[in-house]
Each structure stands twice: as structure tokens, then as C-alpha cells.
Design goal:
The protein has 240 residues and is mainly beta. It has two helices and 13 strands, in the order αβββββββββαββββ. Strand 12 and strand 13 form a beta hairpin.
Length: 240
């Protein structure tokens, strides 16, 4: 499935229940997700003057850990099982490890120095999720997520590499669209959830260094395991 078709499917899933005439507040909650993610770079090797950037030096997959904190409201739609669930969230997750090798001359067989880049993705999110109750405690949900990225600073890296690192960090797109799908299970005032998220638009596309532009196309994905506290629950399924 292409990104365009996935985006259309998720948007249709979100808009379908909105035709219901009546809305009612079902729940308010605070959530936390532990995330296992991956940043995928299309370019495996990038030659930048005397530097060679290897974007895939970590052979492990989907092992970049992170945290997601959220607040959400759940609105029942009509008299059926559909609901809408807008969320506000903040995510901080490790990015893909890269290496930057410095070659003093074009014919040097080995690099003089090798530095490693350990980026961290930080973003605020607005999620417009929709779902359907599959039973008294189980539900399915999916929808688009709009992410507002905070660009990383190069101040903590070696002085001679700060201009290049700064160019790589500046490539982060300020706004990114992602899609989520998941399951939730309510246990008393708590909800357990498992979700999968994949980017619908790139995290980066290119960067500019010394007035030259280089392709640098990255996408992101992550699995999320969560626990939420319902501070308000209209149904209160624990009642006899």
C-alpha cells in the first residue's frame, strides 16, 4: 500500500463516523506509551566533500526506544459504537545511528577519524483518531497524526563537525504527517493499548552543506505499548 492510499484509507476511517448527528463525551484520559521505533534513510551512503556519511551503521531494527505522553478525550458518535478520540501528545525517541568518516585526501584508503551521530526526535503531536467499540472493554482506533518537530542542536558535537551536523539537523521538516492504528483494552479505570505508527510524509528530504544540496530522505515508524488513566469515564464498566 502506498503512502497516498494509506493516508486516504485512514482519513476515510476518521470521517466515516462523523456523519452521526449526536456526540457525547465518553471519557477523558492521560496516557503514556513506551515506543520501539526506526528511522529509515533511503540513501545508505552520502559523500559530502571529504566526509562520508553512513546512515545505516546500526544493524538492529526497531530498537530505538522512546516515550510518548498524551492527553485525550473520547466522544461517542450517534447511538452506535463509533467514537472520535482527539489527542495532544509529546514524543521523544531515539533516531537511527549514523557515522561520519573524515578522509584527509580523495585517495586515502581509510578514514582519519570516525564520529557517530545519535539523533533524538522530539515533537508535539495532534492526533485525530476515530474508533469503534468491539465490546464492553475492547476497541479499535486509527487516524492521522500531525507532528510538529523540534530541531536538534549541534552544540554538543565536536567543533569541527558542528557545521555538518547542523546541516543534517536543519533538514528536519518542521511538520510531518503520520498514521496510527491500534487496539485498546479497558481494565477498571486503566486502558492498555498497542499501536503501530508509520510516517505518511518524510521526516527529512535533503540537507544543504557549503551551498550544496544532498538527498537525505528519511521516514519513521514505531510500535507503541501504552497505559492510560481514565480521569473521567461515562460508562464505568466496573459497576454491577
Amino acid at each position: 500500500m502506498t503512502a497516498a492510499s494509506l493516508q486516504a484509507t485512514l482519513l476515510g476511517f476518521l470521517l466515516l463516523p462523523l456523519a452521526a448527528p449526536a456526540q457525547r463525551l465518553e471519557a477523558l484520559g492521560l496516557g503514556y506509551h513506551f515506543t520501539l521505533g526506526q528511522t529509515w534513510a533511503r540513501q545508505r551512503r552520502i559523500q559530502v566533500e571529504e566526509y562520508v556519511i553512513e546512515t545505516d551503521t546500526d544493524a538492529s531494527r526497531t530498537d530505538d526506544t522512546g516515550d510518548r505522553f498524551s492527553a485525550f478525550a473520547r466522544f461517542g458518535l450517534g447511538a452506535g459504537r463509533w467514537f472520535a478520540q482527539p489527542e495532544l501528545a509529546y514524543t521523544s525517541v531515539l533516531g537511527q545511528q549514523s557515522s561520519i568518516a573524515y578522509y584527509p585526501t580523495a585517495t586515502a584508503p581509510y578514514p582519519q577519524t570516525v564520529s557517530y551521530l545519535y539523533p533524538r526526535l522530539r515533537r508535539a503531536e495532534v492526533a485525530l483518531l476515530a474508533g469503534r467499540h468491539l465490546g464492553k472493554r475492547l476497541h479499535l482506533l486509527a487516524g492521522p497524526v500531525l507532528a510538529l518537530h523540534r530541531r536538534q542542536s549541534s552544540a554538543d558535537y565536536p567543533t569541527q563537525l558542528q557545521p555538518l551536523y547542523g546541516s543534517l539537523f536543519a533538514a528536519t521538516r518542521p511538520v510531518q504527517l503520520l498514521g496510527q492504528v491500534g487496539l485498546g483494552l479497558q481494565l477498571w479505570r486503566f486502558e492498555l493499548s498497542a499501536r503501530y505508527e508509520h510516517s505518511l510524509t518524510p521526516f527529512t528530504q535533503s540537507f544543504t552543506y557549503q551551498q550544496q544540496t544532498y538527498a537525505y530522505h528519511q521516514r519513521t515508524s514505531q510500535f507503541m505499548l501504552g497505559l492510560a488513566l481514565l480521569v473521567y469515564d461515562r460508562h464505568r464498566p466496573w459497576r454491577p
